[in-house]
Amino acid sequence: HNIEKHLSAAGVPFAVIGGKGPLEKGCVGSVVLSSVDAIRKMARQCVKRGISDVQVVSCPDGGRWYRRIADVFADYGIFPRDTVVPLPHVEGCRFDTVRAAGFDFISRRKSMLPQLYVVTDDFLAAGMLVGSIANGIDIPRDVRLIAYSNGGFGPFFCRPVAKIEQNADLNAEEARKRICDWLFLRKPFPNSYIQAKFIMGDTFQRD
User: Fold this and answer.
1) Can you tell me the distance from the alpha carbon of 36 to that of 1, in angstroms, rounded to the nearest whole number?
2) Where in the chain does DSSP place strands (E)?
3) Which residues contact 129 (CB under 8 A, 6 or more apart)?
4) Of 28, 29, 26, 8, which Cα lies nearest the Cα of 18?
């Protein structure tokens, strides 16, 4: 946000990718990544299947995802629980640490599973999926699971994973089009939304 203020004060035109208004003076547009439509579809599928016991599982920096999910689910009479998985401080690859934390999390909860886990980190979900196999937890019969994911980056499982997915390549192309429209046509694009997709996978549906 400080960079935006600096560019605005300097009179340099700029665009914002990933944020949303109010826009600073001089901002020609904002490409906003949104998951609201996908969360609504997920909530409707939960209502259809009588799922009310939902647990949102996040890393310590994932609180914003819980709030978005909880706000939408409340419109459908579902009030998910918020669970933050602690991560030890380690040097090196964060991804291995997150996967290990997911494995440990589901291993310690195999006797108190909700109807549905919504996991807001794809590496955390990967660890939970491996942990389910190691602990004899049948997904989706014992517990259903939906993972947030970036297209093409998993998580991988022995059956198709239900996901809320953003496609980074398509998002970048959409942002490029918007910026080129301004550069060549001077066409502004205030708060242009790119919606994530809800992908129905076998970790959610049982039939």
Assistant:
1) 23
2) 14-17, 27-34, 54-58, 81-84, 116-119, 144-150, 162-166, 189-195, 197-199
3) 102, 139, 145, 155, 157, 161, 203
4) 29
Name the pTM for this structure. 0.85
Q: For the chain, how many residues are written?
A: 207
Cβ pair 195, 132 in contact under 8 A: no
Please check the confidence at residue 37 and state whether its pLDDT lies above 80.
yes
Residue carrying the six token digits 């039939």: 207
- Is the pLDDT higher at 206 or at 55? 55
In the chain the first and final C-alpha atoms are separated, in Å, by 47
Q: Write the single-letter amino acid at 43.
A: A
Q: Which residues pair with 66 in a beta bridge?
A: none
- Percent pLDDT > 70 in the chain is 94
Structural contact between residues 116 and 53, judged by C-beta atoms closer than 8 angstroms: yes
Helix, strand, or coil (residue 135)? coil
Convert the pLDDT of each residue in 122-145 to its tens digit: 999 999 999 999 999 999 999 999
Helices (H) and strands (E) in the chain, counts: 6, 9
In angstroms, rounded to a whole number, what is the distance separating the alpha carbons of residues 130 and 157? 8
**Distances 41 to 34, 48, 127, 144 between C-alpha atoms, Å:** 13, 11, 25, 16
